[in-house]
Write a structure and sequence with these properties.
CATH architecture of the largest domain: 3-Layer(aba) Sandwich
Radius of gyration: 34 Å
Pfam families: DUF58
Number of strands: 17
Distance between the termini: 66 Å
Protein name: DUF58 domain-containing protein
Largest sheet: 6 strands, mixed
Strand order of the largest sheet: 14-13-12-15-16-17
Keywords: Membrane, Transmembrane, Transmembrane helix
Helix content: 25-40%
Structural class: alpha/beta
CATH topology of the largest domain: Rossmann fold
Number of domains: 4
CATH superfamily of the largest domain: von Willebrand factor, type A domain
């Protein structure tokens, strides 16, 4: 439909140009004299160029795009170079290039940026380097480059979308967070973590032969007094507890802040050599049972780059079955609005839960409403730790709670 519309408009412009040619020629024939024929011969090159431009094939023009920024964070800059190639060195005058995308958030940035106008002349290839600032988080698909050419006076204009599809992933921003486990216990528990955080030197579990590098304070001196052989005390390895991270994707003005907080928490846990399970609740449940390595983290960052606020029902109704299947005792719940129904759902469905921390994301300077304060107090009365976090204190989420 658009192609038919463009072709109709093009032929309409050609008819107008031919009418101008006929008009100037008729004027010269009937008027006669130097001035009238001068006008005709002066307009003839422009009219001839317009007709030739209308017949110029845009289908043979090719385009390539080179992306300079391999990874983009929210609010960062995206840079690329578009190169146009053509076989026929037909002289082109006003050529306008612009990127085309179906992403609404990215399209707002592209529309506000003025398109690039180039005068290629006889050149068979020419380039355009551009930068998009303040990129929004998400998965954005660049559909192609829109090429528009025009003659001297805009009598004839031709437009074509040169398809070259590429995907831009804009990842959420992250903040350095000093991770502290919500709870610790010894490795004889049923859910000991696979890594050691610290040795508790107040509880010896046995002795072994001395090895070079053992601390002097670990030597079992009573055994040495009896056998004259150096022996070293062995201690219980104190290990962190596996964590279950839950967040909801309800529509909220603070959803972007919520995504940044979740990304920062995941990054801090992995970099602390810890592990956790992660569940993101929306129209589709995205569950990651083990998050421990950089590979797991990259997969999650890909998910957080694309995720949208698409939860279309109360979170307590959407998460009940997952909480029943949760086999960890520490829950970290990130939300923009804590509800009484969600508190009841956690209590009712998470049978083995011993620790629950609720992080409620708020905007900078946002005041707490009275009804929200009542919900927070209710959750605290049930043994939950409730903390309101804003962007300026993301980094101290775990350390302040520990204190």
């Amino acid at each position: 439909m658009n192609q038919l519309k463009n072709n109709t408009a093009l032929w309409g412009r050609i008819l107008i140009v031919l009418f101008l040619l006929f008009l100037t020629f008729s004027f010269a024939m009937f008027q006669g004299g130097f001035v009238s024929w001068f006008i005709f011969y002066m307009s003839l090159p422009f009219i001839g160029y317009s007709v030739l431009l209308a017949l110029y094939p845009l289908q043979k023009i090719k385009v390539s795009r080179e992306i300079h920024t391999a990874q983009v964070r929210k609010g960062g800059d995206f840079s690329a170079t578009v190169t146009v190639y053509r076989e026929n060195p037909f002289p082109l005058l006003y050529t306008v290039l612009s990127e085309q995308t179906h992403s609404p958030s990215l399209n707002k940035i592209i529309v506000n940026q003025p398109p690039k106008m180039i005068v290629p002349g006889f050149r068979k290839s020419y380039s355009w380097t551009y930068t998009l600032e303040n990129m929004p988080r998400g998965e954005h698909v660049l559909e192609g480059v829109r090429l528009e050419i025009s003659d001297f006076f805009g009598w004839v204009k031709k437009t074509r979308l040169l398809p070259i599809q590429q995907t831009i992933l804009v990842y959420p921003n992250t903040v350095e967070i000093a991770y502290r486990p919500i709870e610790s216990r010894y490795d004889h528990g049923s859910m000991a973590a696979p890594f050691t955080l610290v040795k508790d030197t107040t509880m010896a579990s046995g002795v072994r032969d001395y090895q070079p590098g053992d601390r002097v304070s670990w030597i079992h001196w009573k055994s040495y007094a009896r056998t004259q052989t150096l022996r070293t005390k062995e201690f219980e390895d104190r290990q962190s507890q596996d964590l279950f991270l839950l967040d909801d994707r309800r529509a909220s003005e603070k959803f972007e802040l919520q995504v940044e907080l979740v990304a920062s928490i995941l990054r801090s846990v992995v970099h602390a050599n810890s592990s956790l399970a992660y569940l993101s609740i929306g129209q589709k449940r995205n569950y990651f049972p083990v998050v421990q390595t950089e590979e797991h983290l990259q997969r999650l960052m890909y998910h957080l780059a694309k995720v949208q606020s698409d939860l279309d029902k109360p979170v307590d109704q959407a998460v009940g079955r997952e909480l029943q299947q949760m086999n960890t005792s520490s829950l970290l719940y990130v939300t923009s609005c804590l509800s009484v129904e969600m508190v009841h759902s956690i209590q009712r469905n998470a049978k083995n839960l011993s620790n629950c921390m609720c992080l409620v994301v708020v905007s900078k300077g946002e005041t707490l409403r009275e009804e929200d304060e009542q919900v927070h107090q209710f959750a605290r009365s049930k043994g939950f730790v409730v903390k309101r976090v804003s962007p300026e204190n993301f980094a101290t989420v775990f350390t302040e709670v520990s204190r």
